[in-house]
Amino acid sequence: MSESMCCYDPVTLTCPTCGHVALRLPTYRTCRPVPVPPPPAGPMGLLSGMGLGDITAASLAAIGVTKELVERLLGRPCYCPARQEWLNKIGYAVGIGKPPKKDQDVQTLAKD
Ligand SMILES: [Zn+2]
Question: Ligand 1 (ion): which residues have CB within 5 A?
Answer without folding.
Answer: 6, 15, 17-18, 20, 31
